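help with this:

***
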Amino acid sequence: MKKLLLALLSLGSVATANAQSFTTEADTVFATVGTTDVNIYNRITNTTGAPFTITWKRVDDNIPASWKNTPAFFGVCDNYNCYSSTLIFGTTSHTSSNYNPGVAGDFHVQLTPAGASGTYFITLNLDGGGTSKNITFVFNKFPTAVSNVPAKNTDVSLYPNPARNTLNVSFDENAGVKTIAVYNLIGKAVSSYRVNGGSNAQLDIDNIPAGIYLLRMLDAQGRVLATRKFTHQ
């Protein structure tokens, strides 16, 4: 009985190891869209001994309709082809070419600066070679007016980071910061704080769930002056 149990445990270990047949550079990647086209890479590496294809599809997003209906605004590329927004946002799956063992193969999202401003995400499911996993691309698209904000306005420090109960924010007192807003990774505002002058703010984050968040600094007109990422433990 003891030998049989050990054998079963060994088989379970092998199955777990074999199940991890590819990796990506990250589970979630972040980017900012400015005034030029952006490619956000999350390359796929085959960790097995034989080539295989990846089948992928969109599983969740908050991309605005204006992006989805304009093929030139948004696209996803694997190592076989690039697919425009009109082919991505549906139930159709797409299949790559073979990813060769030990090679970081292409997989990325394409964005243009023409879309509506906001914080957006798309989650894709990748399935191949015995592994299935979700990866998420998060990106900030700022209004055109933000490009005219002086560079000193983006000098922001967050500490401690990761933070537990309190997050301290330090910034240029001449930047015109009036509001500090905290967003989760799907673009939903979870808290907002008024800034009454000075160059420092102390945010009480004790009541928000643990996770990764985006902090936005806004001026009196609601323009985004800076965005920073922090972790709440």
The chain has two domains: 21-141, 145-232. The chain has a mean pLDDT of 81.
